[in-house]
Amino acid sequence: KQEVTQIPAALSVPEGENLVLNCSFTDSAIYNLQWFRQDPGKGLTSLLLIQSSQREQTSGRLNASLDKSSGRSTLYIAASQPGDSATYLCAVKGGTGKLIFGQGTELSVKP
Amino acid sequence: GAGVSQSPSNKVTEKGKDVELRCDPISGHTALYWYRQSLGQGLEFLIYFQGNSAPDKSGLPSDRFSAERTGGSVSTLTIQRTQQEDSAVYLCASSFGTDNTGELFFGEGSRLTVL
Known about the structure:
heterodimer; A: 111 residues; B: mainly beta; 7-stranded mixed sheet; 4-stranded antiparallel sheet; 11 strands
């Protein structure tokens, strides 16, 4: 059974810092991994999708990496801003086609 | 449509009543997913459709929960005889393609409160 773990559960940083969010998964037989952000009371916004054959994806200040063999992904946020404050979720898609989510990392960026 | 649309955005009901939640996926997306997010909890998978068929219903919590999809588009999640523990945000997502590589896009959710 696939399990997804995110560390840390919460993170508070001053504005301008570079930061790394971690995601690990137990079954390396995945189709892809997707990072989302969720603002309070809102749905999920897709940030980055990494297919199983890829090593990383970049979008603006965000960079996500994938190491399938070790069951790990990291989301790197450069030059953090208060508007980056949200909960960040990673999810992996396995053979059944459904996405399994981690519990999320709640990020707070202080001005 | 431009994005995944869900209705109602908020629903308050009394224990024992039936409720229907609707999801209108992005046009052309063949896969549709329902998830549940309870207060302070992670996302719990409920059911997944590919076209009108549901290859994976494993997440439906009980036989009070059912879902259907017609015309490969709109889906309805029905909860019969609602209980207080059904209170949660119900999220719908859709993705393009049948090869499991598609990116998921979520709606804003339907917040259900059972009194």
